[in-house]
Amino acid sequence: MDRRTFTTLALASVATLALAPAAQAQEFGSAELIAAAKSEGKLVYYTANFAEIEQQVIKAFNKRFPEIKVEMVRAPGGQLITRVKTEAAAGKLIADVVDHSDRALMQPLEDLFQDYAPPNAADYDPHALISPKYWPRATIAWSIAYNTELVKDPPKSWMDLTKPQYDKLIGQVFAQSGGTTWTRIMFERQVLGEDYWAKQAATHPVLYPSGAPTADALVRGEIAIAPLLYNVIYQKKKDGAPIEIFFPPEGAPVNPYATGIPKTAAHPNAAKLFLNWCLSKEGQTFMIKELGNLTSLKTPPAYPEGFDPKVVKLWYPKFDEYVKLHAAWVADWDKTFGYRQ
Amino acid sequence: MHGQADRRSEAMRSASEGTRRRAFTGLWVAALLAILTFLVIYPVFMLLLGALTDTNPVVDGIRLSLSHLSIANFLAVLANPNVAEALLNTLIACGGGTVIAVAIGLLFSWIVVRTNTPFKGFIAAASILPLFAPPLVAGVAWAILGSPKTGLINTMFKWMGSDLRVDLYSMWGLVFVFGIYYAPYVYMFTSSALRNMDPSLEEAAEISGASPVATLFTVTFPLIMPAIVSGMLLSFIVMLGIYGIPAVLGAPTNLNVLTTYIFKLTNWSPPLYNTAAAVAIILMVVTGLLVYLQQKLLSGRSYTTVAGKAFRPRSLDLGPWRWLTFAIGIVYLLIVVVLPSLALIVAAFRKFMFIRDVASLFDMRQYSLTHFESIFDNPLTMRSIYNAVEVGVITAVVGGALAFAIGYTIHRTRVSGRGAIDLISTLPVAIPGLVVGVAYLWAWIGVPGGLYGTIWILALAFIARFMPDTVKALSTSFLQIHRELEEAAWVCGKGMLGTIRTIVLPLARPGVLASMTLLFVLAIRELGSSLFLYTSNTMVMSVLLLDYYEGGNIGKTAAFSLVQTVLLGVLIGGANWLSRGSAQGNVARTG
Questions:
Q1: What is the DSSP letter of B158?
Q2: Is residue B15 part of a domain?
Q3: CA B207 to chain centre
């Protein structure tokens, strides 16, 4: 390499490095939006996702925009909806961003939200969208996890979970717990067969109220195998717990979130910037790599560890059925699994 | 002539004083009733409205809610066999738990207060530690110890080659954990009563030839019956409302009690608050019956034992038997304090809770400070600690003062309206925290001046919610102070407020301090009613703790609850140390 080429290359790389942040910042919104967001200085973020996971998202966002403080309120889905409805009715909705895992609960509240679309709106898969006001900030998928200390002959598919050899070893989240679990049981009945529930119930699974205690029970060895949201158990594996996770070949049920900005947001620019970042390639890549999410971008920028796009089929529920079938099917599930209402 | 004029003016003066006093008491009762209406009646009204409709009173408006009144929720709930089963489970678990709690608590307060057992001060101070741990944490700790599959106790048994196995994921487990967890509660009530009791009555029994045991059962315990019944009833009622312990221990075997059932209803998607409110009303009815029963039992008897004569609390010389009571104390501490604390410490410092065998339990490579580092890396942690302490102090001071005013009005005056005050202030005990949280939200979100979003809405909720506990705790001290002491002050020309300040307050001081401390602890631990009232600025420790638990991280949950326990211990120890010497109102001893 002669000196001139070297100098040119060096200059070019310096220029790229210097310009990069500015160019990338554009990706998250116009200079005016960023300036307005910085002068607002904060936003209040309501989420149904786990606090610990969202803490990491906020940290990553603050690496890029340290001037904007994100104050989080975390509550389980049902409680969060009640809070949003009640606050809104009293004219005291504090949230600048509402992030919810159950799209069916968010849809009736559409009127509370303002029009919003991220700069890369066209890159999103229309399957994941139920309203032009809501965006799939997070997209999470089901996997199967097992404790490697306890399971020497691990299952390899959803159908394996019906084998008698796993009797009393499996843990499950019950159907009524929320949107993500509803997606899974809908997938089980529509894809794995009408009798899948009955076969699975015959292995006497232990029922848990949500994914987190299930994951904890799996690590402790209270149960040995469990269908779990990948992002709930991934963190534990990453930290070194005796856990193995796989995406079963029959399909991975996917639950996109519905996230929007209320009309009454006191910090609308900061809210937009935060969502723009979350929905950007950078934000989605962070959530995939660090948190074990998937994405609803048409061309995923990355895949979580152990996810082979050639093998695993993503399964999105049809939204009209997602709303329509819920009550009756959940009641059937409760009966099949002997879960008492 | 002169004398007559004097008498007449005196008569006129006393008449106008009487009018003034009547006006004052009228205002006083009206003010208390107004406060209670805001704190209790209005939220309960919202709850009833919720139970009787299918609407959200804030979203749909009260008028629409009123036009939707029906008893459909009640009928659905009453016809549901699972509700009946949950109710039955609740009664068995709480009844069994109360029996154990009373037996242990009473025995223990007798050991600490009335015997010369060695190191009893230390045992007493350590024995209240479980009260600092939220029920959820107690549940987690006992699950770590007593799970049939992975419990440390079973791991130990296996290691020792024993075939013994324990299974706390059962009704027996629930009864056992309820009982030992609430024994300190009974102990708190009975020990202060024992301490305030005049020992001459026991001496009289002994002089008449009664054996120490006979004296205990025929004189001592009957005399402190109000405290025993209060403690028994309150622990039963508190158990009725506890979610954390049955949630952790009952879930794996699908064992439901009313609270876990209600939590399920509110946590389902979509949530069924109206049904939950209807189930909550059932709980309220059960509790209401119990409160009625207690008042029936205690009415028409006198329990005043603190009279105008000086006495010194006497301790019984047990001779060599004192080592037996010492051993009992140590076993009690071991089970109630040491074992659960060890379980939490293991969970807090261990990277993962998978424990294959005893060797793995002692494998030091498995331990680290990761969980503590990560909780303090979270900016919410410090914020929540600060907020919790602030709410705790406000609740303790304002709630303590209010409870004193209510307790005094109920027990030491004959003003009309005190019956209503008594009833209303007892009502909140019956409402489970989770549901009342929604009722407070419905009731107070619209209060002008922006109560919502501040620390005060949390403090007010805690004051209202724990008013029965505080008033009852104070009542026992009021019941014990003989009227002659107040009458003496009146004779000496003191007014009512002067009497309260110089006589009642100093005498009831141990009780007042103990109830304020209790209130502080309860406020810091309280979870259910905070869930709907906190906002991003007013996050408190208990909510953050639930976040850690719901996030599925038992290590961080344990680490954070250790932080909370140590913090409470330091704060309460500090408060004790500050108030030491001036009175006997030492919380470590009364409580």
A1: H
A2: no
A3: 39
Q: Which residue has the higher pLDDT, A114 or B65?
A: A114
On average, the pLDDT of chain B sits at 81
B448, closest residue in chain A (CA to CA):
A90
* Count: domains in chain B: 1
The verdict on A27 and A121 lying in the same domain is yes
* A199 and A66 within one domain: no
Is 80 exceeded by the pLDDT of residue B479?
no
Task: Assess whether A284 and A229 both reside in one domain.
Answer: no
Which secondary-structure segment (H or E) carries A314?
strand A314-315
| 3-state SS class at B96 | helix
Provide the domain limits for residue A178.
140-254+308-337
Q: Within 10 Å of residue B405's Cβ, how many Cβ atoms? A: 17
Do A81 and A40 share a structural domain? yes
Q: Name the residue of chain A whose CA is nearest to B533's CA.
A: A83
- Does a structural domain hold residue B19? no
What domain range includes position B470?
Answer: 30-590
> For the segment B433-449, what is each residue's pLDDT rounded down to a tens digit?
767 787 888 888 877 77
Identify which of A105, A209, A213 has the shortest CB distance to residue B267.
Answer: A209
Let me know if residue B373 belongs to a domain.
yes
Sort out which chain B residues have CB atoms less than 8 A from A147's CB and list them: 354
Identify which of B254, B544, B550 has the shortest CB distance to residue A207: B254
pLDDT digits (tens, 9 = 90+) for B529-546: 887 788 878 889 988 888
CB contact under 8 A, A179 and B445: no
Domain count, chain A: 2
Same domain flag for A330 and A209: yes
- Return the CATH number at A207: 3.40.190.10
Tell me, what CATH number does B178's domain have? 1.10.3720.10
pLDDT band at A9 (very low <50, low <70, confident <90, very high): low
- B24 in any annotated domain: no
Complex-level ipTM: 0.77
Structural domain includes residue A103: yes
* Shortest CA gap B349–chain A (Å): 14
- By C-alpha distance, the chain A residue nearest B535 is A73
> For residues B146 and B144, what is the distance between their CA atoms, to the nearest angstrom?
6
For residues A214 and A265, state if they share a domain. no
Buried b (16+ CB within 10 A) or exposed e, A236-259: bbeeebbbebbbbebbbbbbbbbb
Residues in chain A with CB shorter than 8 Å from the CB of B252 are: 206, 217, 222
Query: What is the DSSP secondary structure assignment for residue A115, as one 8-state letter?
Result: -
Tell me which residue of B228, B131, B238 sits closest to B189, measured CA to CA: B228
Which residues fall within 8 angstroms of residue B96, CB to CB, at 6 or more apart? B175, B178, B179
Evaluate whether B206 touches B214 at the Cβ level (below 8 Å).
no
pLDDT of residue A96: 96
Strand partners of residue B9: none
CA distance A275 to chain B (A): 18
Shortest CA gap A13–chain B (Å) = 36
Chain B residues in contact with A176 (beta carbon < 8 A): 264, 268-269
Contact between A86 and B256 using a beta-carbon 8 Å cutoff: no
Residues of chain B neighbouring A222 (CB-CB closer than 8 A): 147, 149-150, 252
User: Residues A156, A274: one domain?
Assistant: no
Asked if residue A110 belongs to a domain, the reply is yes
Residue A72 falls inside a structural domain: yes
CA-based nearest distance B248→chain A, Å:
10
Mark whether A207 and A333 lie in a shared domain: yes
What whole-number distance in Å separates Cα of residue A45 and Cα of residue A259?
10
Query: Which residues of A are less than 8 Å from B77 in CB distance?
Result: none
Structure-token match 């006495």, residue found: B311
Predicted TM-score (pTM) of this structure: 0.80
Q: Are B291 and B429 in contact (CB under 8 A)?
A: yes
In a domain, A14, yes or no: no
Question: pLDDT value at position B445?
Answer: 83
Identity of the residue in A52, A82, A87 whose CB atom sits nearest the CB atom of B551: A52
